[in-house]
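Notebook entry, structure prediction.
Reason for the run: the old model in the group folder had no record of what sequence produced it. Starting over properly, with the input documented here first.
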Amino acid sequence: MAVAVLALLAERPMHPYEMLQTLRDRHDDVTVPVSIGSLYHSVSRLCEHGYVRPLKAEHVGNRPERTTYEILDPGLSAMRERIAALLATPTALSAADHAGLGELHNLSVEDVLRALDARIADLDHQLDGYSALLDLAAREHVPEIYLLYGSYATSQQHHEREWMATLRDRIQTGGLSWPTPT
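New structure, fully documented this time:
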């Protein structure tokens, strides 16, 4: 969440409600769970570290006072370092993926096929959701630079779906040898 807050403030000073709305407009809230409470908590921590500071507080109409924050040079540096580190380091598969794939031979072929069918169906559902969000963002003229993660996630999900479907076919057709259950 801290990187997202710093990145928003690098664009321009904002108050947390504006940050929330911007994240929602860009559909970033789909991949990064966000609430106004988590934003205020993140802003507070960033203030404590000297990365951001309050710029002004104002009342608009009947709304409660809203404090606008700005990013400071140490925050800009920290954000850039973290983004570079995130881009440079591939993420590992989850322990659940490792255990599920690494130990699937302990299930019957029927159970594995059933589980893979469920996973493929779930991936299809996720791909449909990503596609719909990307289409909506395009219709709303959200700049492509803000949609890169959605495009990347769609690509990753598509490749995972194809790999799982190929594995399923190999198991079903006997193209992958199966140990005799003990």
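Summary: The mean pLDDT is 87.
The old model has been moved to the deprecated folder.
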